[in-house]
Amino acid sequence: MSLKQLVLEDGSYFVGEGFGSDSESIGEIVFNTGMTGYQEIISDPSYCGQIVTFTYPLVGNYGINRDDFESVDPAILGVVVKEHCDTPSNFRSEETLDQFLEAKDIPGIAGIDTRKLTKIIRRHGTMKAMITSMDRPVSEVLEILNQTKLPIDQVSQVSTIKPYVVPGRGCRIVLMDFGMKHGILRELTKRDCHVTVVPYDTTAQEIDRLKPDGIMLTNGPGDPKNVPEAIETIKELIGQVPVFGICLGHQLIALASGADTAKMKFGHRGSNQPVKDLKNGKTYITSQNHGYSVSRESLEATDLELTQTSLNDESVEGLAHRLHPVFSVQYHPESSPGPEDTENLFDVFLENIQADKKQQKEEATCLNAQI
Ligand SMILES: NC(=O)CC[C@H](N)C(=O)O
């Protein structure tokens, strides 16, 4: 067992037992409050550039299996836990968390008082942090952290490089990949959609050539303002075909519609975030992972309607366009991990597409009759 240290930008530091890879890493430290779902969290590309603290005290007890990945190559920069389990017990388990992190060159640190660490992050907000060996004095690590600028090109790191097709007999969907979780693709293919996954910087003209019935905008890492090309594309797409945005996709719809986004102090990351639907009065328990949110006041000057809010802090959780079949949510209806309360939103998207097709047909018949 080798000792490692976790040093935070504000000077706090923790010493723990190293596991996973021995490499050093610098990233934004955040915390996730989910009690299960570590494999999905670790492989969710939205965590690109971040070191994740798990507040649940035991991580790794059901191992790593081949089915629950949300991406092929995890983009997370480090894992912080109280205790990791080296003797997983589950019929699907193929390797331990330690073995997986080592194979993927992701450093882990265990034996950390994650409650104390989380309190620090809640008080100060998310900040830069480094996982490193004990060889470096804390003052040196702080100097490195001071001089490090965290990258802002995370979306281009995790988006697909080339378009690809997942065939189906149903609706033709173009999925703009900003760091897609496989769960989103799974929900669409489950509904027999013909999905073309395209890179984040695909233009509206290129998308138009694919003749989509609907566009999905995925989750993804970083600040939505760091993908201005996608904001321009979405501006052009709104009004052309039905659009459904998830998480980063939701934030991009807001920016494309003239609303604003801002960084939250420590974000929402967990599997039990309560959301209120303002239309039907229901509360949904949702899975979330975001550090930015749409500014509520900025919605007034736009054509966007607030449809859902967080019951924890009243932040914006859902939006719908007043004029076009465009809607979005800040949370993850595909769950993975987390509750499946809002999975029906994929059906709402497909219903919007059917309604839009019907309307287009009627308009064409009307036009033919006039001629
Ligand atoms: N899961 C996501 O898509 C996250 C969106 C964005 N990167 C945020 O942190 O707010």
From TrEMBL:
One GO BP: L-arginine biosynthetic process
UniProt-annotated binding residues for L-glutamine: S46, G220, G222, L248, Q251, N289, G291, Y292
SUPFAM superfamilies hit by this protein: Carbamoyl phosphate synthetase, small subunit N-terminal domain (SSF52021), Class I glutamine amidotransferase-like (SSF52317)
GO-annotated molecular function: ATP binding; carbamoyl-phosphate synthase (glutamine-hydrolyzing) activity; glutaminase activity
Region of interest (CPSase), ranges: 1-172
One matching Pfam family: GATase
Pathway the protein acts in: Pyrimidine metabolism; UMP biosynthesis via de novo pathway; (S)-dihydroorotate from bicarbonate: step 1/3; Amino-acid biosynthesis; L-arginine biosynthesis; carbamoyl phosphate from bicarbonate: step 1/1
Leading EC class: ligase
Assembly behavior: Composed of two chains; the small (or glutamine) chain promotes the hydrolysis of glutamine to ammonia, which is used by the large (or ammonia) chain to synthesize carbamoyl phosphate. Tetramer of heterodimers (alpha,beta)4.
Entry similarity comment: Belongs to the CarA family.
Protein role: Small subunit of the glutamine-dependent carbamoyl phosphate synthetase (CPSase). CPSase catalyzes the formation of carbamoyl phosphate from the ammonia moiety of glutamine, carbonate, and phosphate donated by ATP, constituting the first step of 2 biosynthetic pathways, one leading to arginine and/or urea and the other to pyrimidine nucleotides. The small subunit (glutamine amidotransferase) binds and cleaves glutamine to supply the large subunit with the substrate ammonia.
Name used for this protein in its record: Carbamoyl phosphate synthase small chain
